[in-house]
Amino acid sequence: MFQKIKERCEILSKNFKEINPERKALLEKLATHIQRKIDEKEEVNLVYVCTHNSRRSHLGQVWSKVAADFYGFDIHSFSAGTEVTAFNQNAINALIACGFEVKKSDETANPKYEVLFGESKSNLCFSKTIDDESLPKENFVAVMTCGDADENCPFIPGCDLRIGTTYFDPKSYDNSILMDEKYTERSNQIAMECLYSFSLLKKIKCSQN
Fold this sequence. Notes:
Strand order of the largest sheet: 2-1-6-7
Oligomer: single chain
Shape: globular
Number of strands: 7
Strand content: 15-25%
Number of helices: 6
Distance between the termini: 25 Å
């Protein structure tokens, strides 16, 4: 893992007290489900869902993979939406500021990006709907990152857990003096909550050994 990202994970993992009890209860439910998959030697597939699959869902996809790696777990993380747009540049910039390397592979309206957090450690990010062929069709967790997607997708076929960890949309601050600050704030919140879930798995894992 790149040193700058590792250092951010170390700082965020010392501040779990900032997560309110209601959020912790949801994240603990997610951790319990992931632990069950690990115990049964099944793949862990997380799909972060937001309406446009442009900001919060991509941050969830990226940070969940990082958080798992930070605590020594191997998972598959994805993102999707109810509409196709593109991975938002402001969200990309927030990740770059955290130490990620982002490589664009094409110049289409909806480019594909390789988001690297270490040597041979990366996520493939691009906007897509929940029925895209690149996504798992069954045995995955649908993590709803925005209220609109949660309401507009009352049923997601194939998921074995649907959980609503919605986040305030930093889009509201686009083109304002607070834009970079708010995107970083949202990135940190999502990162911290992903880290919290996987920190619980580490404790469970240690207690079983």
